[in-house]
Write a structure and sequence with these properties.
- This protein has a single domain, classed as Rossmann fold (3-Layer(aba) Sandwich), CATH 3.40.50.150.
- Helix content is about 25%, strand content about 20%.
- The protein has 5 helices and 10 strands; from the N terminus they run ββααβαββββαβαββ.
- The strands form 2 sheets. It has a 7-stranded mixed sheet, sandwiched between helices. The chain has a 3-stranded antiparallel sheet with strand order 1-2-8, with no helix packed on it.
- Strand 1 and strand 2 form a beta hairpin.
- The longest helix is centred in the first third of the chain and has 18 residues.
Length: about 220
């Protein structure tokens, strides 16, 4: 496919930006994307918190720390703060959108027990920084891309709603996401499509819409 490369681990990568179109991840972007969801936004936040807390609560201190990268309007951190306290919740986002009261904004990726990237990783130009994160567990949510070996992949991909040139730079299937993180020092411990309870697929197929995985870092 023109301007796309399949990496050795199976991850699909947009090679070059197209034209002068640049997505600005500012407060207007947050307002237009996250603050229009209404009650669904908080439902999604609690769905994510329930999944992460349910999977990890037996492995971490009850007041473990959470860093959410690309926190949007902060709903997820607000929901998590009710369980572990706002002082244990941190957010990093280039928009600098105001976080809920008591939750700290950090400019760099602070060392935390759990670091999450919900609908974020696919936006970075370079994702090799993953190997340098200081955490025990990593939570990743990305659009669920079909494996490129599947039949008629190119036709499907060309019309896929998550194919957003210059915005979604990286595309992951289950196997390629796991492979990418394993090669960067992480152990895959869980896969879920829990967000599809709210963010239902729209292509009239059984292909899941959003892929979520939890990884454990092999060493800090």
């Amino acid at each position: 496919m023109e301007n796309y490369k399949i990496e050795a681990n199976g991850v699909l990568h947009q090679v070059q930006k197209i034209g002068d179109s640049v997505v600005s991840y500012d407060t207007t972007y947050v307002d237009s994307r996250y603050n229009t969801y209404g009650v669904l936004g908080m439902q999604m936040a609690y769905l994510r918190v329930g999944y992460v807390y349910g999977k990890l609560k037996n492995y971490l201190n009850p007041k473990f720390s959470v860093l959410d990268v690309g926190y949007g309007n902060g709903d997820y951190l607000k929901a998590f703060s009710s369980l572990i306290g706002a002082e244990n919740c941190f957010g990093s986002d280039i928009s600098n959108y105001p976080l809920p009261e008591g939750i700290n904004h950090v400019e760099i990726f602070k060392e935390c027990d759990v670091i999450s990237f919900f609908d974020v990783l696919e936006h970075f130009d370079d994702i090799s920084f993953i190997k340098d994160l200081n955490c025990n567990y990593l939570v990743i949510s990305v659009p669920n891309c079909k494996d490129y070996h599947s039949l008629a992949f190119e036709n499907w991909f060309s019309g896929w709603k998550h194919r957003r040139p210059n915005e979604h730079i990286w595309h992951f299937s289950v196997s390629s996401l796991v492979s990418f993180f394993e090669t960067h020092g992480y152990l895959h411990i869980d896969t879920s499509y829990l967000e599809d309870a709210i963010r239902k697929p729209s292509d009239n197929t059984n292909n899941p819409n959003i892929l979520t995985c939890i990884f454990k870092k092999n060493s800090k």
